[in-house]
Amino acid sequence: MDLNYSALLPEIILSLTGIVIMLVIPFVSRERQANLAYLALAGIILAFLALLLDWNQTGLAFFEMVFQDPFAQFCKGLFLFAAAAIVLIAMNYLSQESRAEGEFYSLLLFATVGMSLMAASADLIVTFLGLEVLSISTYVLAGFKESERRSNESAIKYFLLGAFSTGFLLYGIAFVYGATGSTQYLAIAQAIQTSESEPLILLLGLGLMLVGFGFKVALAPFHVWAPDVYEGAPLPVTAHLAVGSKAAAVVALARILLQVFPELNPEWKVLLWVSAVLTMMIGNIAALTQTNVKRMLAYSSIAHAGYLMLGLAAHSELGTQGILYYLTAYTFMTLGAFTVVQIVGRHNEQHVQIEDFSGIGYRYPFLSVTLSVFLLSLAGIPATAGFMGKFFLFAAAVESEMYGLVFLAILASAAGIYYYLRVIVLMYMGDFHGDEVLLTIPLSLRIVITIMVLGTLYLGILPETFLQLASKAVSF
Amino acid sequence: MDGIEPQLTILLLIPAIGSMVIALLPDSRNRTLKGVALLITVIAFGYSLLLVEQFQPQLDTMQFVQNASWFDVGNLHVHYHLGIDGISLFLVILTTFLMPLAILASWTVKEKIRSYLFFMLLLEVGMIGVFISLDLVLFYAFWEVMLIPMYFLIGVWGGERRIYAAVKFFLYTMAASLLMLGAIIALYFFNNAQDFDLVQITNRLSSGEMVLSPQAELLLFLAFFIAFAVKVPIFPFHTWLPDAHVEAPTAGSVILAGVLLKMGTYGLLRFCLPLFPNASVQLAPLICGLALVGILYGALVAMVQTDVKKLVAYSSVSHLGFVVLGIFSFNLQSLEGATFQMLSHGLSTGALFLLVGMIYDRRHSHLIQDFGGLAHVMPRYAAFFMVFLLSSIGLPGLNGFVGEFLILQGAFLANAGYAVLAAFGIILSAIYMLWMYQRVFLGTMNHEANRTLGDLSLREGVILVPLVILALWMGLYPSTFLRPMDASIQKVVDRIEQVQPATVYRVEYRGP
Fold first, then answer.
1. B158 or A342: which carries more pLDDT confidence?
2. Residues 6 or more apart in contact with residue A350 via CB below 8 angstroms
3. Do A407 and B183 touch, CB atoms closer than 8 A?
4. Which residues contact B404 (CB under 8 A, 6 or more apart)?
5. Does the CB of A34 have a partner CB in chain B at under 8 Å?
């Protein structure tokens, strides 16, 4: 029994920063609240340093409530990175909307705390708490533009369905507790291993938990909320939903399935198989017909969750490695794409239709070249992160002899190429008919985009470094 | 077996660094940029000739091998493995040879020249990479990466329906290649996750150390085959080709016809045959049938075209049918003929597209009806056109003859019926080509606009003369090209004969 603060130091720092921001808001004038973003960034950087101190330590912390292991550390690093990028995007977004409000940053930091807890959790209750911290912050963030109907719609939809799904998850946790007498990961795994038969109640619990996570990851058939919520939410929040929130749910699910329920693999494998196929198909096919880029990226992110399930269903070291690698790749390319959309979208996100990208290719070379890289990466073209990620996931599925699944994934990604390509076609081959308002690219976003492009290419050409990190991380 | 010979990497780096130079060059005058690009491609060509000089024709193994780990984690071992043998050597040379000519032919491109040249050089990296990679993943990466520059070249600098053509080209090839990716991964795990190394896997398969079940072999073969068949293109996967060719800018068509289509047939020869000999033999009748349909169908469709560029495009379908027929006839003559025909088709069809581009620059049309009697005003142009037209038909003494003759000879040994049918393709090619020549160059001048056309400029002459020299060389002394292929082709033949003993009398062939 040991508290072992160092394992949770990043979360503690983030929470404190969030609270400090909340506390100082009343004393800072509206105009100067934009500066609170720097405070948030400082907190994230400090948390990252704390994470580095803890790197490669293993064990249990906080009364065996959280794991201290490379898996958690890898995920936390990723979440912190994403959070920092989203803070920068949000800074620009809020000043553009003339809404410099510090609450945004503290909510984002709390959400990140929730995500980190989900990745590190060693107890179903902590998982649940992490999920709630993440969700509640995100509900508020989604409705951040309270005067905007779409934003309100987004928040209400997300809240209602989210609350519903949390119910499923909790119900599932209760069943699992009933079946095994514990909420601790290791204890549950132990109990399942020693019991001779698998009681129905346990299967029911697992099923309900899968439904709960399915909502958060936006897996078909529980994906219906995603496009509306993504479209209506303010852009930085959409990016956070598509990247951070989804990644957190995926890694929490991965840990639960691989660490708690490996014995039930035949059961959940079938469910994931079906869900992966549906998710990839629905995501890619629905994205084909979208005219709004945000909504298109929403469907595309549904499809990507489907690819991730390939790695999970494979239930192998390579599969988990593939998931972590893909999540990293996905973070780079999706955040990059959203940043470009944010710049092109301008005030009030008025220009996020696909037509608004028409002909910008040679007018804004920086934006178009980078967006092309992100889209090609999302489409899975070699020399980009997306290809490597898909390669690892497909390889894992083939290794586990799920040939049918890989075949369907290939078909789905072939369909997916079309809509990514469509944006590139319009950018470079369409006619420019926008107004002559110049797009301005603030320095901070230029930096974000540059980092994301370099990351996308680096992961695509020299995958070794991150692959090594990911392979260390999969040893639970 | 770690190879550390850096030549091939250098060959890849020349255009790769070149494309960066183009992208970052401060001087943005069009002439400077074009000059630099030309210089880079000429250097690459010169460097590739050094490889020919050092190449040892008697060896049947890979040469200039460079093998290093690309990424090697857990269960995945992917290598950066380069090497060339008699089959790929000349395809690399063909690529580096056509590039400077394509750049010269792009002198008339005015818009967005910097990105145009950037994509051209990137394309060269991709094409060379495809021919020299020996690791399946590396091969796949180059294979796909190369689509992007081609896609932009067609889509931005192409003709009227360029976007449709570019998207169709991209989707067709990409969708088909994804299946190959699946097959590559599957092959890796059938190989006990040892490596993606083409040479190693072939050795293990032929020594019996690694065994594929017949079903697995058939499915893997099909996945590879479809990816290559779309690229070749083999009937009925050819529909993207006329669109892409017609809409592409001249240099794009030249590269498309000259090199990109060869990647498909190269893939069949390099991957399908050695890796899956049983399935190849089993499906050979079907594939030869498709090839014959392609030969005859391509020729017949070419005959009714009203557009010269489209005519040349359909003639490619027909000519590549010969190559596929040669590959799936599985004997030394047919395979050498097929490889020779790849080079020869690249040369003559590339030249024909260049010529069509030259007249397009003057008249902005490639419809047959817009011309007539051109020989009166452009005698030199007409003469050059005749040379390449005859080489495309397969006139003895020019390059086209050797390849087609060898293929027909080999096909005859495998199945006389195939050869007889294929021979009709040659007759038809004479018909459509000469008929087109008659309508465009002979007769009276019906269009006033054609009276003022100028004959070839010096630049255009510089493009065409090397092509003529090479056409004559390949036609008169093919041994220069055939002998270095012998050992490597024999190896493929031996591999096939492991599963299907030679049923025909083997003729010792010693050049015409």
1. A342
2. none
3. no
4. B322, B337, B341, B394, B426
5. no
For residue B187, the chain A residue with the least C-alpha distance is: A398
Taking all residues of chain B, what is their mean pLDDT, rounded to a whole number? 87
What one-character-per-residue DSSP string does B332-389 give? HHHHHHHHHHHHHHHHHHHHHHHHHHHHHHHHS--BGGG---HHHH-HHHHHHHHHHH
SS3 B78: strand
A266 Cβ contact partners less than 8 Å away, ≥ 6 residues apart = none
User: What distance in Å separates the CA atoms of residue A107 and residue A409, rounded to the nearest whole number?
Assistant: 36
Cβ atoms of residues A456 and A56 within 8 Å: no
**Residues B457-491: pLDDT tens digits?**
888 888 889 999 999 999 899 888 888 888 888 88
- CB-defined contacts A:B, below 8 A: 90
Residue labelled with tokens 């699992």: A176
Q: CB of A406 within 8 Å of any CB in chain B? A: yes
Chain A residues inside the 8 Å CB shell of B222 = none
Residue A208: partners with Cβ closer than 8 Å, 6 or more residues away: A168, A169, A171, A172, A175
Q: Is A432 on the interface with B (CB under 8 A)?
A: no
Q: Which of A321, A392, A429 is nearest residue B156 as measured by Cβ atoms? A: A429
Confidence tier at B505 by pLDDT (50, 70, 90): very low
Rounded Cα distance, A14 and A33, in Å? 18
Residue B294's identity, in one-letter code, is G
Q: Which amino acid is at A408?
A: L
Given a cut of 60, is residue B382 above it in pLDDT?
yes
Across the interface, of B71, B112, B155, the residue whose CB is closest to A464 is B71
How many other C-beta atoms lie within 10 A of the C-beta of residue B290? 21
Rounded CA-CA distance A43/B220 in Å is 53
**How high is the pLDDT of residue A137?**
93
Cα separation of A412 and B451, whole Å? 55
Give the integer Cα–Cα distance in Å for A292 and A303.
17
Nearest CA in chain B to A399: B189
Which residues from B are below 8 Å from A when comparing CB atoms? 70-76, 112, 137, 140-142, 144-145, 147-148, 152, 155-156, 162-163, 166-167, 170-171, 174-175, 178-179, 181-182, 185-186, 188-189, 193
Q: Determine the Cα–Cα distance for residues A110 and A54; give it in Å rounded to an integer.
A: 21
State pLDDT tens for residues B269-307. Answer: 999 988 998 898 888 889 999 999 999 999 999 999 888
Cβ-based neighbours of A217, under 8 Å, separated by 6 or more = A246, A249, A250, A253, A305, A308
Contact (CB<8Å) A471/B148: no
Residue B236: cis peptide before it, omega within 30 degrees of 0: yes
Chain B within 8 Å of A70 (Cβ-Cβ)? no
CA distance B178 to chain A (A): 6
The H or E element spanning position B76 is strand B76-84
**Which is higher by pLDDT, B454 or B339?**
B339
Residues of A in contact with B74 (CB under 8 A): 317-318, 321, 467, 471
| Residue B512, pLDDT score | 47
Residues of chain A with pLDDT under 50: none
A181 phi and psi, to 5 degrees? 75, 15
- Please identify among residues 274-333 of chain A the ones whose CB lies closer than 8 Å to any CB of chain B: 317-318, 321
The predicted pLDDT at position A135 comes to 93
Nearest to B189 among A392, A398, A418 (CB): A398
**pLDDT tens-digit readout, A96-152:** 887 767 889 999 999 999 999 999 999 999 999 999 999 999 999 998 888 888 888
